[in-house]
Amino acid sequence: MKLEHIGIAVKSLGVSDELFEKLLGKNSYKNETVEREGVTTSFYKTGDSKIELLEASNAESPIAKFIEKKGEGIHHLAFGVENIYDEIERLKKEGFQFISEEPKDGADNKLVAFLHPKSTNGVLVEICQEKA
User: Fold this and answer.
1) Is the N or C terminus of the chain more exposed, i.e. has fewer CB atoms within 10 Å?
2) CA atoms of 53 and 9, how far apart (whole Å)
3) CATH value at residue 117
4) Which domain holds residue 92?
5) Which candidate, 124, 128, 130, 127, places its Cα nearest to that of 62?
6) Where is each VOC domain found (predicted)?
7) CB 79 within 8 A of CB 4
8) Average pLDDT over residues 37-42
């Protein structure tokens, strides 16, 4: 398992992209909307991992609710795995709970599953696998 990306919830991709382009000295390599999750994303490469900016595309999305409750900031840590199905089973045996045990299509050509923050000391953890 390796750190794949850090997800940051933002109110405005336009404002945040400008900030991160200045901070990192480069443009995002990918922008994508995931309709099912009500989110638009922007990705930046940072060495071996990435930063994912997440903007709500509707008021009922998990990102909109997160920002309403906690404000902008770090939303999740994502770890890349070779086989997401095997990793879900391993983590369940270790006592971790998942928000959903069935991986879903995520941004950046990934299958994703989220561990429930109640089982990870309040941190939302994503595991992700590159889709074939």
Assistant:
1) C
2) 6
3) 3.10.180.10
4) 2-130
5) 124
6) 2-130
7) yes
8) 96
* Residue 123: both structure tokens together: 């941190």
Tokens standing for 15?
């404002």
Six token digits for residue 91: 């983590």
Q: SS3 for the chain, per residue? A: CEEEEEEEEECCHHHHHHHHHHHHCCCCCEEEEEHHHCEEEEEEEECCEEEEEEEECCCCCHHHHHHHHHCCEEEEEEEECCCHHHHHHHHHHCCCCECCCCCEEECCCEEEEEECHHHCCCCCEEEEEECC
Q: Can you give the length of the chain in residues?
A: 132
pLDDT in tens, 10-25: 999 999 999 999 999 9
The rounded Cα 19 to chain-centroid distance in angstroms is 19
**Is residue 61 pLDDT above 90, yes or no?**
yes
What average pLDDT does this structure show over 16-35?
96
Q: Residue 32 and residue 40: Cα distance in Å, rounded? A: 6
Return the residue matching tokens 């309403």. 68
Share of residues in the chain with pLDDT > 70 (%):
100
